Amino acid sequence: MPPLVQYLIRFYQSSIGKKIIVALTGAALMGFLVAHLLGNLLIFSGPEAINGYAKKLHDLGPLLYVARAGLLLFVVLHIVCTIQLVKINRAARPQKYAVDTVRQATKSSRIMIWSGLTILAFVVYHLAHFTWALGNQYHDPGMARYWVEPGVHNVYNMVIDGFSVWYVSAFYIIAMFLLCSHLNHGFSSIFQTLGLATPRTRQPIDLAGKLFAWGLFLGNISIPLSILFGIKS
Amino acid sequence: MADSKSSLDLTLNVWRQTGPDAPGRFETYAAKAIPETASFLEMMDIVNEDIIAKGGEPVAFDHDCREGICGMCSMVINGMPHGPKRGVTTCQLHMRSFRSGDTIWIEPFRATAFPIVRDLAVDRSAFDRIQQAGGYITVRTGSAPEANSVPVPKPDADASFMAAACIGCGACVAACKNASAMLFVAAKVAHFNHLPQGRPEADSRALGMVRAMDEQGFGNCTNQYECEAVCPKTIDAEYIRQLNRDYRNAAAKEVVGI
Ligand code: FES
To answer: Which of A5, A110, B45, B188 is the most buried (most CB within 10 A)?
Structure first.
């Protein structure tokens, strides 16, 4: 094996190495979440805006598949590394304390694996819902409502119809809440794990993480809420 | 002698385990007329004398200096390594921190890397193995060098000194939800990496000590900082950030070969 590969494997096998991978992929996925939200918010500018944006994305062609493959790689790395780390953590303390105390760990930091797995379940559901159109007629060529022109989806109507179902919106809002809990701890953790936070910047970073998480939560749920309450239809 | 006003009657639930592989369980003991001026370990001594008088086996626990500097005492008291007070070791914890009538749960540090020897005594030699992987500097031996021949900037000396305060007790491991040793390793690495004498081996130290840590069966840091909250020497989790940085740089250099 070439030494370069050997040392890369060695890096991956170390605890901090895996954590750095989790941090970097987490940061990249946060970037995706921001872009995704900004695109979605176009729904408030009306059908033309969001449908035009969707068409532009679609017209990227092969580039879109490169982006999707990259995202998938980040997601897989993020999850595989964390699951390996969690298994080591569990093995490191098989016997629990009779009296379990928490001194200063935040709630969001203590449910990372559960918030993360819920997000994974949600992402699979979300893709099945909008991308693969399982259990709905979004891809049915006979449904004129879901097409702007042949081959071009009417994303606006898909979103309105999707979120008009209360339990779809409810699951979405719960998943977004857990996502933002995950981001709250994830944001400051990225800076700690990459060795970037300093005593002077730690507090502002924590605050920025909170604002980022809440901002993303409110931005995302504004869409189903405004549909549920009939502001958008 | 303690008068009745300044003494406490307590109920202790103490973890008893006859050996590393024996099953353990809690035993309940009454600790009567404990002077509030007694240290926690002295309270344990009193209880042990009572157990011995009744023909039982005394509770085994580690201790040595009893003045907060050796790092031998341990114990998790009501879920807190070294008990409820910040910046204090078990040997320096006094019974005035408790109230008469209290029930106290006393457990050993729990971690795969710290196997239980007996009762409350655990084997912390995993820390020694980490130390051997980089907790040293290479110097010319012989006559003592001139003390000030290597200038050390004050901020570096302070940062190193604060890390060097680590007594290696293992409370950080005991408090961490993942039984991670990152605060200990971070302190030991920073102690040398902040000093000019430690710089030549800074990279190999970070790599070596982190790898030795991984091999001992400790968990991984999830940035919750329970460790710094229980550290009897109040070592800051900022040192963990510095270890992450040092390891990151050293590993990157190692991968590309510079
Ligand atoms: S016995 Fe030495 S630090 Fe407690």
So the answer is: B188
- Mutation test residue for ligand 1: of B62, B63, B77, the one with most atoms within 8 Å of CB: B63
Helical axes A3-13 vs A15-40, angle rounded to 10°: 80
Place of tokens 């390793």: B185
Q: Which of residues 107-166 of B touch A (CB under 8 A)?
A: 107, 110-113
Query: Residue A136's domain spans which residues?
Result: 3-228
Q: Do the Cβ atoms of B255 and A109 come within 8 Å?
A: no
Q: Supply the DSSP symbol for B145.
A: P
For residues A34 and A56, what is the distance between their CA atoms, to the nearest angstrom?
Answer: 18
Assess whether the C-beta atom of B57 lies below 6 angstroms from ligand 1.
no
CB A109 within 8 A of CB B224: yes
Q: Enumerate domains of chain B plus CATH numbers.
A: 4-118 (3.10.20.30), 124-256 (1.10.1060.10)
The interface pTM score, or ipTM, of the predicted complex is 0.92
Full-model pTM: 0.94
Is ligand 1 within 6 A of the CB of residue B128?
Answer: no
Q: Does B80 touch chain A (CB under 8 A)?
A: yes
- List the pLDDT tens digit at each of the 233 positions of chain A: 899 999 999 999 999 999 999 999 999 999 999 999 999 999 999 999 999 999 999 899 899 999 999 999 999 999 999 999 999 999 999 999 999 999 999 999 999 999 999 999 999 999 999 989 888 889 888 888 999 888 888 999 999 999 999 999 999 999 999 999 999 999 999 999 999 999 999 999 999 999 999 999 999 999 999 998 877 66
